[in-house]
Each structure stands twice: as structure tokens, then as C-alpha cells.
Amino acid sequence: MKNYNRMPEKFLWGGATAANQYEGGWDEDGRGPSIADILTGGSVDKERRLTPPAPLPEEFYPNHQATDFYHHWKEDIALFAEMGFKVYRFSISWSRVFPNGDEETPNEKGLKFYDNVIDELRKYNIEPLITISHYENPLHLSLEYGGWKNRKMIDFYLRFAKVLFERYKGKVKYWLTFNEINMLTQDFGAVFCAGMLDPKDVCEQSRYQAMHHQLVASALAVSMAHEINPEFMLGCMLAYHNGYPYTCHPDDILYAQQFGQIHNSIAGDVHVRGYYPGFAARYFEEHGIQLEVLQEDKEILKKGTVDFFTISYYSSSCVSVTKDGEKTAGNGSDNLKNPYLKASDWGWQIDATGLRYVLNQIYDRYQIPIMIVENGLGAVDQLTEDGKIHDDYRIEYMRRHIEQMKEAIHDGVDLIGYTCWGCTDLVSASTGEYKKRYGLIYVNKNDDGTGDFSRIRKDSFYWYKKVIESCGEEF
């Protein structure tokens, strides 16, 4: 008889990072600049800004060094192994492999770095989960081609993906084609997801056209990967936007449904079902969006559906047709505050029960395996005089979410993995800050540029180690 109170024995516990927020070494060994490298540091009194076409000497660019995985990879992977990771999600910097993005031949020094990382992970029996494109398009592709609104990006992406698939076909099983592809339904996604630097491209027409090109590229990559190695598992990755109706007025109920359809299900349906849902056509018509869709795109999308579904989940919010009410922050959103929830230091509302709701919603719709590949708490951590970080708030956040993961599995959801964000401190994508810390490992680096990049285990490090050792029994 199945024990519903236990996690699956082969559950993939681990952590997640992204090259642009963690790796550093931005101009070493032939790497070219990415769009992340022209994003300035941010703070409460200084908005994070783009400074194209190149970094300015008077500005601070935290992504250039990030938290220096490029020179600490062996040390960090040993720490991941100490925690007992079964899987580690990371991205490969496109401009480290193809410095401009449109070259014919990859940068061998860049690939060698990832050879070392993957081999070190395998030494500890940690499964690599690679995100091919995670908010770091080569800057040259933005300046020369305008980013993903240009269909030529598909070929450049596929050349990059093919190099990775062929080089690591015996070493890597799990792949994600794009990070949070559905962020292109919002203004936030124009630069981060699509590398479109022209302010005019913040419009819906450009964003949805860029998303279409990425969906086609994803489907072609999935088909290519399965041909190169039938054992490859290819997944999509969405920033799951959980918006509750602000009131029980029928208009708010309908608006919340439509919010989820647009921000979650358009991209999800194309990835999993292989076609645009019916409501997308009405939305495009009513918003004056005219996608350039080639005849062969329909067959490409139908053929290149994903094997599993992954999400980032940090918080939830409320939505209303009136848009009246106090706003709250979130992962790429600024919807209405839920009076029943507490929030993080950055105003992201903490809603562990919402994770169970979301997992059931996804699985009911798609019936394929699900993995949570980002979930964590950004907070101000205090280093004590004796060199420790007592982050009980982070432990409580993760504990409550893992509890709801177990409930979702009991509900019948096929949940196969969890990689907390970020397993080590890194640069916040939204604010460009070091002080917004997510890690279970503290990295000594600060927003004023000070710090020696030394690593310190937080209390959450030891707690998560016990969670993994017990497969979720001690949490």
C-alpha cells in the first residue's frame, strides 16, 4: 500500500542558480558580453538601469563578478555534495560559448569550463539540469539583430543548443530550453527574456512575436535533442503567476481566470500540447497583436512538445478587474496585496498553500511530470560576530513549501524534483543587489563592492542537508 506521507525515493532534491547572477568572469577566456552585463546595480534609491551599448566605467555592474562561481566552482560543488544534492540546476552562458552569438564555431575555452563543472557534478553523483537560455542573450545579438523579435535568432539558438546536446549527450539527461519564457507576457520580459533593447519593443506586439520565435526555437530544440539522444528529457520553464480573485464578484472571478490563461497557459499549452489555445486568438485580436507565423511553425510546435514541466514559484497576489487596492511586489509582477498573507523584506507575499494549488492546477491541465526549479526567500541576512548566519525565516519558508509539496503529491501530482533558489547567494535579477540574499550558502560580497567571496554555511544549509538525507521526512 502506498505511503502518501513519504516523498518518492528517487525525488530530485537540489538547488538552482543562473550564470548571469552567479558565475562572474564576464570577460575571461573569450567570453563576450551579454545583456546582463550592461545592467547596473540597483538599490532602494537607485533603479537598476540598462546602459547600452557597453558598460560605463563610472557604473557598478554586479553581474560582472556576481558571486564568482567561475573561480569557486570546485568549492561550491563540494558544498552542494555535502548538502546531499541529487540535482543541480544551472545555466550555460550563451556568450561564453558563442561570444557574439552568431559565430559558426564555438569558443573552446568556454566549453571547457562547463566540461569541468559537469564532470565535477558527476563525480559526486549530482544530476546536472541545464537551462540553455536564462536571461543572458549575447549583447551582439541585441545590437545587431534586435533580439528575439528577429526570426534569425532561432538559427543562432539552435546552433548553440546543438553544440551542447552533442558535447554532453552522455553526461546530461535533463534540459530546459528557456527560463521563464512566459515573462514575455509582461514588460519585464522584453529585455530579460528577449534581449530587446529598443524601448519601443516593450509593446505587446514585439513581446508576443519574440515569445513565438522562442516557442518555435524550443520545439525545434526538443526535436533535435531527441534525435541526438532519445534518453534526453526536455522541459519547459515558466514563472508561475498565481493570481487570486480580489473579491468574489463574478467579474473578478472571470478576470483571475483570464489572468492565468494569458500569463501561464498560452506558453504552457504551446510547450505541452503543441498549439496555441483558443483564448489566445481572441486576446491577440482584441489587443491588436498580429503574429508572423509561418506555415511550418504549426507542425514544428506539434512535434516538439516537452517531456516535463518546470516552474518558479515564490509568492502569490490578487487581481481585480477594477485594479483598485494596495499593490504588492512579486516575481515580475505588481498586482494587489492579499490581506491574509505576510510578505518578505522585498514585499513578495509568502503563500505556501498556493504552491499546492498551483501544482494541482498544472497537473490537472497537462498530466506530465512537474519539477519546481525555483523557490526561495530573498532576505537580509546578518553575519554574527562568530561568523554564522541564523536564517530561521528561510528555513520556515522552505519548510512550509515542502509541506505543501507533500500534500500535492498526496493529491496525485507527479512531482519529481525541487531545486531551491538559489542554493548559494547571488545577484538578484530584479534589483541587482547582493543584499537580497537567497542562498543556503553565504557569499561574502556586498553592494559597495567589498567582500572576498568567501563561503559560509548558513543554518539553512544544515537544515536542508537533513531534509535531503531523510527524503523530506525531517523538515
From TrEMBL:
Q: Which UniProt keywords apply?
A: Glycosidase, Hydrolase
Q: Which Pfam families match?
A: Glyco_hydro_1
Question: What terms describe the molecular function in GO for this protein?
Answer: hydrolase activity
Q: What InterPro entries does this protein's entry cite?
A: GH, GH_1_N_CS, Glyco_hydro_1
What does the record list as coiled-coil region(s)? none
Q: Does the keyword Hydrolase apply?
A: yes
Q: Does the keyword Disulfide bond apply?
A: no
Source taxon at top rank:
Bacteria
As for family, the record states:
Belongs to the glycosyl hydrolase 1 family.
Q: Which PANTHER family does the UniProt record give? A: 6-PHOSPHO-BETA-GLUCOSIDASE ASCB-RELATED, GLYCOSYL HYDROLASE
Designated name of the protein? Glycoside hydrolase family 1 protein
Q: Which organism is it from?
A: Roseburia amylophila
Q: What is the lineage of its organism?
A: Bacteria, Bacillati, Bacillota, Clostridia, Lachnospirales
